[in-house]
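Risk register update: the risk of archive-format incompatibility is retired. Evidence:
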Amino acid sequence: MPTAPIVTSRFAEYVIRDGKSHGMNLRWAFPPYPVMGVDKETLVKYINGDDPVTGKKFMAEVIDALTKPLTEEEKNPPVQKREKRPRLLAPDTEANLNRMFIEKGWTDGLPIVLPTQERVAEMLTGTDHDPQEKVGMMSVTTHEELNEYTVEKVAAIAVMAGARPEHLPVILAIASTQHPSIPSSTGSYGSMVVVNGPVARIIGMNSGVGALGPFNYANSVIGRSWTLMSINFGDARPGDTFMASIGNGLSFTNQCCAENEEKSPWEPFHVQKGFKHSESTVSVFRGWNVATLGMGGADAIVQRIESAGMMGSATFVVDPLAVKVLKDEGWTDPFKLSEYVAGKLGNAFFKPRPEDINFVVVGGETNPIWQSTDYTYYKTVSVDKWMPENGIKLDKKPIRMPVSKQCEDELCLIGKK
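Archived output:
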């Protein structure tokens, strides 16, 4: 079918390169940038003027794209392959190598632990899987060539993030989802990963006070690993493959925590998704907006979604005290709550599904609040398959940050326990 694709000149280099990557060189026409927020008269000038990339008349390019037969080169374009990175770098000083990692764009800009052969070998003791086993393929764009990564490459990323072997099975599970935490979109996404099951307790993850803040070693290094995998495996390069106009501060470590299964009156999130209580899992989410303070029952949740203009999906991070408010309303099953909320939303053209409204229980019972997001839930995968046969490989003295005590009677501030 004859096609005349149009995209603003700001993205010309990106779409031309993308076409070469896939052997599909389309007949693009490029109006000036931007087009959003521009008055009608200016847009008319764009259409009647020259393409700023090619210098040709814009409308003539559109008509040619629709009417002229394809050339032989357009019918049989060569597919370009990316240059493979070497497995090992040449020896150098630690300072020079740290500089290289930063200047090559292989980090998040923060200091890393250099992934030497010895450190990666130690990290690999965190799993029994073959270092050369393929874990997945990833790209931050939806169209460019996917990069393959192995257990060893994931271990190198875990070292860079500052993780220990005890964290590797969870990081491998995140890698197996093949979802980058920072997609190429011009929107500025945030992502969340929630860990369920016994592994969260074993590796000391935080599900209580400050769980989504900078107060837990495991939460931080696991979340950061996801970003470093997205940069390196997903080939995120700002202004090239990564086009988020503003960016998102959540992307440094993402929102990474465990679910507070102990304090939740609901079935754990992974059980709701078909896994057993005894299984350990990671669940990944992605969206744009996070509002940190909300209170009330089911109708307050409906009002929040309506007022925030969420785009068809929502994930609520709910403190255990707020869950009890919902339970007192009769919501003993979170999916029934999802059905109720979804039933209250939508219009003649769009109706959200209950599956698009999710609830995760996180928090330390200091305030009966919920955090609302427009995050889409993508998938839940097993951590267990990546664990060593003899269980999680703990250091002789595992590193743990200070933790807040759990209040057994919900009244710890005035103190029974």
